Amino acid sequence: MRTFIATAKALSDENRLRALMALTDQELCLCQITELLALAPSTVSKHMSILRQAHLVEGRKSGRWTYYRLAETADRPLVAQALAWVRQSLAAAERITRDARHLEKILKVPTGERCGSKTSRQAA
Hints:
Elements (H helix, E strand, L loop, with lengths): L1 H9 L3 H9 L5 E2 H8 L3 H13 L3 E6 L2 E6 L6 H14 L3 H14 L3 H5 L4 H4 L1
């Protein structure tokens, strides 16, 4: 039951749902997610920590940067179901469509250039 509650809580925030949808087909650096959500890096880190604790995302460090991707779900059917539900339910949402267009622009800037500044919002 703890897993279910952690998953439900993780999915109860619009910004965390937006981050999950952005990660649907790709791995993103924390600074790219920060730019997309237009939030402070510490706030985005907290959101990603909640998603990670619920086993919805996985992270890896590469030098100074942390990259996130959707979690492997082979041994976690609840997570697989939750991610499928989120993708199916939000795929056509206006906010997610706008985020996808914005993310295309963000991804045109190399990670080192975007993440090299003090905050990703200053790099925009």
